[in-house]
Write a structure and sequence with these properties.
The chain is α/β, with parallel strands linked by helices. The chain folds into 2 domains: about 90 residues, no CATH class; about 210 residues, Vaccinia Virus protein VP39 (Rossmann fold). It has 10 helices and 7 strands. It has a 7-stranded mixed sheet.
């Protein structure tokens, strides 16, 4: 139990108790203050490996990730409602306090993806866990993948209705962005249509569920298609589930990037391998290539170049 004496564990535990006692996780002064404190505490580089903490701390961490996800969903619905009241919601995205974070993360993800995709931008992508405010898809579609078709999946019908309203008035995006109310575990043959699939950080709130989703994607995606997975590293694992390269069975891991500054999520990109059904049924584990814990030199350069003063910065838990 000595691990409980770790200063960051103690501080996270105190914030967790305060968050747990909140009557509501909807945006408010108290909610915003506590989650800001949590992010500021977990973002700086730290040698801690949250996956190896004591069982009782792991339980607290899993509950905290669930609370973070719930609060984030409520915040997104709050701002999606406000944005939906405008005639041109896409012209007003900057009212969302953390819009610049999505610009930076989507830029990072696109630059990493483009290194491994021959033509630079996929023709059609799937985004799993898009939510009511699908800012990653919107940023990618507007700034980087300007001809790509996006199929966004979320199990929340209300979230998809809200998301659809955001792009309805835009002649271009309304023809390229679609929203499907489906559990991705029930989507099979359609997954073969995608050149790339993005898996949001909060799809699969624990290790077992996350691996199930990844295995499902490995079974049904087209060989050669790319998978972009968001994870967390170090103390940031108190905010989001941690995905290891070895969890991507059926994929060749091409790149792992653990930003150490403002972008909270880690990013992994992998290519679907050609395997037969017998291999999948026996859950054959494919060894991932050995990768550094931070960005490769090229990716680290992209990350630094992406931190421009043009967009500014505010902390956020990115979906």
């Amino acid at each position: 139990m000595a691990v409980k004496k770790d200063p960051i564990v103690q501080k996270v535990s105190k914030i967790y108790m305060k968050i747990s006692n909140l009557k509501s996780l909807k945006p408010s002064k108290d909610v915003n203050m506590l989650f800001t404190q949590l992010v500021l505490l977990c973002t700086p580089p730290n040698p801690i490996d949250v996956t190896k903490l004591h069982k009782t701390i792991q339980e607290m961490r899993l509950n905290l990730i669930r609370l973070c996800g719930e609060a984030e969903g409520l915040m997104e619905k709050h701002y999606a409602t406000i944005l939906g009241s405008f005639d041109n919601p896409l012209h007003n995205l900057s009212i969302f306090p953390y819009f610049s974070n999505y610009i930076k993360l989507s830029h990072l993800e696109y630059n990493i993806l483009s290194q491994h995709y021959p033509s630079g931008a996929p023709n059609r992508v799937g985004f799993v866990g898009s939510g009511p405010l699908p800012l990653t898809s919107i940023c990618l579609a507007m700034y980087h993948m300007t001809t790509t078709v996006f199929d966004n999946y979320d199990i929340d019908a209300e979230a998809n209705i809200m998301a659809s309203r955001l792009i309805a008035s835009d002649l271009d995006l309304s023809k390229r962005m679609f929203f499907h109310t489906k559990n991705i575990m029930k989507v099979t043959t359609k997954l073969k249509d995608y050149d790339a699939v993005f898996l949001a950080a909060l799809v699969g709130m624990n290790k077992e569920d996350k691996v199930q989703v990844i295995d499902h994607l490995a079974t049904n995606m087209e060989p050669g298609a790319l998978l972009i997975v968001r994870s967390a590293h170090s103390a940031r694992g108190f905010l989001y589930p941690v995905v290891d390269p070895c969890d991507l069975r059926g994929f060749e891991v091409l790149s792992v990037c653990h930003p150490t500054d403002e972008i909270i999520n880690s990013v992994m990109i992998a290519r679907k391998l050609a395997m037969n059904n017998h291999d999948y049924n026996n859950k054959l584990e494919v060894a991932s290539i050995s990768l550094p814990s931070k960005c490769s030199p090229a990716e680290e350069y992209i990350f630094k170049m992406n931190m421009t003063e043009e967009f500014g910065y505010e902390m956020n838990l990115l979906a």
